[in-house]
Amino acid sequence: MNTGVVSMRYAKALFTYSKEQGMEDAIYRNMLQLMATLQQVKELAAMLAAPTLSKDERVRLLCSAVNASPVYEDFMRLVVDEERESLLIFIAHCYVSLYRKEKNIVAVRFTTAEPLGEEFCDRVAAEFAPSGATVELQNVVDEDIVGGFIYETETHRLDASIRRRLRDIETEFIKQNRKLV
């Protein structure tokens, strides 16, 4: 079966159940923590796939990776019982997307060469927010962009960095010089 289809089914089921329990906010935070942990600790996926770990140990491991709520723990037990641990990162992404859509939240990643101040972050969030939406702004510092910024949401990307402009100039320069040769 398709990874995306299965992941979305699990995420929808978790979202519906967590809403019924009034725990969707806690599960959202748990899923964000799980995504960050799975991305930062590459060995975690290998540990979950190890046949030497019992199902209970896998559930404990997944719950210790975050501040586990009771609903999260129940869901992890289901995922482990159904042997769907390899889909956890996809399930987490799907849940986060469902939650943000339901709560009208737009995640914005704003990459700059220097860290932004809180006041500037608030202005950026207000400027780039669709009307009525709440903005979750993540400021990423990447000195390699030299200056300017890169604005990213789930559906848009605007690269106004000096690094991109320099690449454009280099590409144009190469094109012009090839014509001369």
Which helices and strands appear, and what pairs or packs with what?
Blueprint: H1 3-21, H2 24-40, H3 43-49, H4 55-64, H5 70-81, H6 88-103, E1 105-112, H7 118-128, E2 134-141, E3 148-152, E4 157-161, H8 162-180
Parallel strand pairs: 1-2
Antiparallel strand pairs: 1-3, 3-4
Give an account of the 3D structure.
By secondary structure, this protein is of the alpha+beta class. The chain has 2 domains: 3-101, Peroxidase, domain 1 (Orthogonal Bundle), CATH 1.10.520.20; 105-180, no CATH class. The protein is 61% helix and 14% strand. The protein contains 8 helices and 4 strands, in the order H-H-H-H-H-H-E-H-E-E-E-H. It has helices spanning 3-21, 24-40, 43-49, 55-64, 70-81, 88-103, 118-128, 162-180; strands at residues 105-112, 134-141, 148-152, 157-161. It has a 4-stranded mixed β-sheet with strand order 2-1-3-4. Strand 1 (105-112), helix 7 and strand 2 form a beta-alpha-beta unit.
Q: What would you say about this model in short?
A:
The protein is α+β, with helices and mostly antiparallel strands and 181 residues long. The protein has helices at 3-21, 24-40, 43-49, 55-64, 70-81, 88-103, 118-128, 162-180, and strands spanning 105-112, 134-141, 148-152, 157-161.
Tags for this entry?
14% strand, alpha+beta, Peroxidase, domain 1, 181 residues
Tally of separate helices: 8
Strand order of the largest sheet: 2-1-3-4
Portion of residues in helices? Answer: 55-70%
Mean pLDDT: 90
SS-derived structural category: alpha+beta
Termini gap: 54 Å
DSSP summary, beta strand count: 4
Shape: globular
Which runs of at least 5 residues are low in confidence (pLDDT < 50)?
A: none
CATH superfamily of the largest domain: N-terminal domain of the delta subunit of the F1F0-ATP synthase
| Gyration radius over CA | 21 Å
CATH topology of the largest domain: Peroxidase, domain 1
Using the 3D structure, state the CATH architecture of the largest domain: Orthogonal Bundle
Indicate how many domains the architecture comprises: 2
Q: Which sequence of SSEs, written as H and E, runs from N to C?
A: HHHHHHEHEEEH
